[in-house]
Amino acid sequence: MTWTFRLALAALVMATAPAFASPPPKAIPTAPPEVTASGPAGTTLLSFASSGEESNADAVAVFETAPDKDDVRHRTLVMFGRKDGKFVPDFSSDKLIACSKCSQFHDDPFDGDYVKVSPGHVHIEQMDSGEKSSTTVLDLVRQSGKWHVANAVRSSVVAGRGPEKTEKLALPASGLAADMDAKWTVPVFLNTLVVNHKSGKFMFMHGNPTPDSVWEKLQGDCNKQDCTVLVQQQDGCISLVRDSTARSFGGAGADSRDEKQAVTRAMTACNADGGQACKEIRTDCSKGI
Length: 289
What we know:
Blueprint: H1 5-16, H2 33-36, E1 43-50, E2 58-65, E3 75-83, E4 86-93, E5 115-118, E6 121-127, E7 135-143, E8 146-157, E9 164-168, E10 190-196, E11 202-208, H3 211-218, E12 227-233, E13 236-242, E14 248-253, H4 259-272, E15 279-286
């Protein structure tokens, strides 16, 4: 039974690291009532930061949705300026803050601690959990009463340990922060179990962006006439079970921490098809890249 390198490394670190108390959960953010009330329908306040109590103070609130069918939470940023003692919305955008799985590891790049607000300036950093983090930096400045994008840079590190690539994000023609698109998406990394029925060979493949790319990577090792995709999904575990006649059965589970679910489903498929002496051959679990 084989784990992906990333999960195996995590397990090794947990096994060898000294025991420390888990950090306390972050406190639920508080904000003035007019800020909380300004969130889009169906969202809750995720973070709030302001430049202080001065009469020209600025503030940033980030609201998030409940998880969707893919367990992804989406975010909206609302920028405020203080007028007559209260924060009044200047603009909102659902394209500036990352979703909860918008990284190559399908983890959350956003942390409210990395939103810094001063009068007329907002600095936002969002980063993944790689050994060397991929980071997106946005700087917003107020000019003539409007919020503009002064800086938008993304530094990407493949698998958290590869070479770093830095690029400037395209700015909107208007220059306004309200029109900026930081191009956040949930990357697709397919995990696939392929079996060659002629040779009996099986292959576990990870990190392919499309179903077609799996076959392209296989090239001469497999073709669609001799081979079958038994399981294909994104995050989670995939398992291969064979019976006494070497027939292959696949199973999958969406939780990358629970390999038993995938094994159980593969065993169930084997038994349901009359398989004898069904036996787990290999199970792989992965999340993200």
